[in-house]
Amino acid sequence: MKKFISVLAAAALGMCAVPVTASADVVPYTFYYVDKDGNLIEHEFKGCDVNEDGFTDARDATIILQYYADLSAAEAWGKELIDYPYIDNIKKYGDLTEDGWIDGRDSTIILAYYAYVSGLES
Ligand SMILES: [Ca+2]
């Protein structure tokens, strides 16, 4: 029972990693979003392993969302983010919707992909 609870706690924290790498072995997954003009856009998910742990999972989604929050705060204060963790990978992989912004929409797509792949594993 204790082990079961630990697994649930790990899952709740997004620590259950799915064996999927950034761009090489991504499970085929198509996502959709509505652009600023109201058009429904179809995209093929290419992976987003920003922390380079070999998995595209909730940790990557969290990094993207934290980056968006920190960037927004920095801009509000007229500051720049300096030496931000994973910044090269965030800029390289983070704009999943290809709309020029790395934000909560991108993070949500990563979570949706992770949920989809996790469902395949169970
Ligand atoms: Ca990762």
Describe it.
The protein has a two-stranded antiparallel ribbon. The chain has 122 residues and is mainly alpha-helical. A hairpin with a 5-residue loop joins strand 1 and strand 2 (40-44). Helix 2 runs antiparallel to helix 4. It has one domain. The chain has four helices and two strands; from the N terminus they run H-E-E-H-H-H. The two termini are 19 Å apart. It binds calcium ion. Calcium ion is lined by residues 49, 51, 53, 55-57, 59-60.
How do the strands of the widest beta sheet line up side by side? 1-2
Bound molecules: calcium ion
Sheet/helix structural class: mainly alpha
Total count of strands: 2
Provide the low-confidence segments as ranges.
1-24
Largest sheet: 2 strands, antiparallel
Return the string of H and E elements. Answer: HEEHHH
End-to-end separation? 19 Å
Number of domains: 1
Beta-strand percent range: 5-15%
Mean pLDDT: 83
Total helices: the number is: 4
* Radius of gyration, in angstroms, nearest whole number: 15 Å
Task: Describe the secondary-structure layout.
Layout: H1 2-12, E1 30-34, E2 40-44, H2 58-76, H3 87-93, H4 104-121
Antiparallel strand pairs: 1-2
The structure holds calcium ion.
The site of calcium ion has 8 residues, from helix 2.
Task: Briefly say what this structure is.
By secondary structure, this protein is mostly helical.
Keywords:
single chain; 122 residues; mainly alpha; two-stranded antiparallel ribbon; 4 helices; globular; disordered N terminus; binds calcium ion
